[in-house]
Amino acid sequence: MKTTLDIPDDLLRTMKMQAVQEGRKFKDVAVEIFRRGLNRTEPFPDQAAPRRVKLPLIVAPQGAPEFTPSGEDIDRLLMEEEVKSHHATTGR
Fold it and tell me: For 4, 37, 61, 91, which has the most beta carbons within 10 A of its beta carbon?
């Protein structure tokens, strides 16, 4: 099957040079590169880690008592923040 691809100039030159150096057709080098890329078992560098939510790290002041919040604590704190936000936006 034929298709059209936009390949960056530097990559195209490198692939063409590889084909010439190995005495192969450009299309054979391209197919080999595509197959190697598709058969990779390890992720590409920009996909090394799954996307994760980055939560802020809150450092307690030195000497502060240890606090392990319960579900109710978290619900209460979130509600307090929502109320504060509501008051700030409505002025009430």
Answer: 37
